[in-house]
Specification:
The protein is α+β, with helices and mostly antiparallel strands and about 240 residues long. It has two domains: about 130 residues, GMP Synthetase, Chain A, domain 3 (2-Layer Sandwich); about 80 residues, no CATH class. The protein is built from five helices and ten strands, in the order βαβαββαββββααββ. The strands form two sheets. A five-stranded mixed sheet has the order 1-5-4-3-2, with helices on one face. Strands 9-8-7-6-10 form a five-stranded antiparallel sheet. The longest helix has 21 residues. It holds the Pfam family DUF7912. InterPro entries: DUF7912, Ribosome_maturation_RimP, RimP_N, RimP_N_sf. Keywords: Cytoplasm, Ribosome biogenesis.
């Protein structure tokens, strides 16, 4: 039996569906609603508060307060759940991606997402009643996703055995310009003091096909190595080899 991991989300809102539809249809071309969702199709980047992890605050009067509450809720799970990404939007929305810290994949279960969402929603309700945050804030809690962005360097040890899609730059001979490269690689080693990684070519279908259909990696591919400074890594994410 093949097992697949899916990105799971739980949306929390006390608005009725018909109310939501009515409000959605009331937006015109001058509204900012759509702008808040333009990043959904964009390539994730480290620290974007979404698929790339990290924290991204919209600069509202309440976003630091709701971040503090989220961090306190995370601590209440005794080291089992952590915040992978946190984002506030101008349209009074909070998006949180949580990870399970006690398994190697970092993927939370649906029960984890529901438990975190319920605990966080309860604390938000208390803050709303106290008047410290607006009363119309919506909440979305989800997992980091199947092809999560690998945080450098803190996630390297955790995911060192997984194939990764890596986008990186190298310096040209004159050192005045750089060239961008990408590929599905495996992590050979990393040095935290020197702040660099050494990569080889991952033994996955997309790479094997370059050697010829039905063939394994060739000798050149198996022997290929590259060392990249941490700051040359534009994007590193888990690669799902289906």
């Amino acid at each position: 039996m093949n097992c697949f991991e899916f990105d799971i989300k739980l949306y929390c809102s006390y608005d009725k569906l018909d109310v939501f539809i009515e409000e959605f249809e009331s937006f015109d071309e001058d509204d900012d609603f759509q702008d808040d969702y333009l990043d959904e199709d964009a390539e994730p980047r480290f620290g974007d508060g979404g698929g790339g992890g990290g924290i991204s605050l919209a600069g509202t009067a309440w976003d630091k307060e709701v971040l503090t509450i989220a961090e306190e809720v995370s601590l209440s799970f005794d080291g089992e759940l952590g915040i992978y990404a946190f984002k506030t939007l101008q349209n009074s929305a909070i998006r949180v991606r949580i990870e399970r810290l006690t398994n190697k994949s970092g993927s939370p279960t649906m029960e984890d997402i529901e438990a975190f969402s319920n605990a966080y929603r309860e604390r938000l309700n208390q803050a709303e009643a106290a008047g410290s945050i607006p009363v119309d804030i919506s909440l979305e809690v989800s997992s980091p996703g199947l092809e999560r962005v690998v945080r450098i360097p803190q996630d390297l040890e955790r995911f060192k055995d997984r194939p990764m899609y890596v986008k990186y730059t190298t310096r040209e001979d004159d050192a005045s310009s750089s060239c961008e490269h990408d590929g599905v690689l495996r992590l050979e080693s990393f040095d935290l003091e020197a702040e660099r990684c050494t990569w080889g070519i991952a033994d996955v279908k997309v790479n094997r096909e370059k050697a010829g259909k039905g063939r394994p990696l060739n000798k050149k591919q198996r022997e290929w190595r590259i060392t990249t400074p941490f700051d040359s890594l534009l994007l590193v994410r888990i690669y799902a080899d289906f």
